[in-house]
Amino acid sequence: MGAIEASGLERAFAGGIRAVDGVDIDVAEGEIYAFLGPNGAGKTTTVRMLTTLLRPTGGTARVLGHDVVAEDAKVRATIGVALQEAALDPLMTGRELIRLQATLHGMARAEGRRAGDALLERVGLEAAADRRVGTYSGGMRRRLDLASALVHGPRVLFLDEPTTGLDPVSRRGIWDEVAALNREGNTVFLTTQYLEEADQLANRVGIIAHGRIVAEDTPAALKAGVGNPRLELAIAGEEIERARSVAAGFGPLHGAGDGRLVVELAGGATGVAAVVRALDDAGFAVESLDLHQPSLDDVFVAVTGERISEEDTGEHEPVAAA
Hints:
Layout lengths: L3 E10 L3 E11 L4 E5 L6 H8 L7 E6 L2 E2 L4 H7 E4 L11 H11 L4 H14 L15 H13 L5 E5 L7 H16 L3 E5 L3 H7 L2 E6 L2 E6 L1 H6 L5 E6 L4 H8 L5 E2 L5 E5 L7 H10 L4 E7 L3 H9 L18
Parallel strand pairs: 3-8, 3-9, 6-7, 7-8
Antiparallel strand pairs: 1-2, 1-4, 4-5, 9-10, 11-13, 11-14, 12-13
Helix pairs in contact: 3-4, 3-5, 4-5
């Protein structure tokens, strides 16, 4: 049994809008699964269905074996959810908010206090626990939201854009905490706009476009599928075409100009020295060089035809008819 399973999952809205169009997902227990897609691709709609916040209009989905429609209460009891827009009351303190969350999950008062205080310490908010949430920074709010999602000890955690808008230090702190939770055995379903985040954290990545999954594999396998590393060189002198003919003996050439050439190297870094020696022997001085490894951004462009931007912070879900 997988931690998260979806088969032919669909969601249609009024006006014939099909936001999710036959998605199949199989996330193993203990896995970090990153879900990527351009704005409006169906990421948030899929997460809302998997977390019982939105009813599918087709297909099935299960979390830890529980159907998200027929057994929605059991699903909610086993998952933690931290959505992109955290609903945190700015007038409550961090400690009050996390204790309220424990109460809503039916935890005994003493148990909720112990769990809440332990989590506030874990996410580095112990010193600010009795301050009003309205005084918290963005990073502190995200850490409080994460702690709130964990208070009842869920086995599966859904994180929707957990680091959007955070500074690099705060973002790294959330990454470290997600990795630690995974090492403790938690399954994490992560939607993100940061390709580096998916590359660093995820065991597998799924890319969704126009409501369908268009690529899915480990980050390494996805990157390997879009080509070899590319060596970019700046060449002294004006005979760039002759330099290109020398470099062409080592792999396919790619577009470049202004005294620069780009050659694809099947061997990656192991082939750099040979290219430089050949150019030197031909009378060319290499002024600079950079070896570019394929990235998830390259994968994303290859399978969707567009790039993710850091302003691409989520999708606006169509409004269903009443």
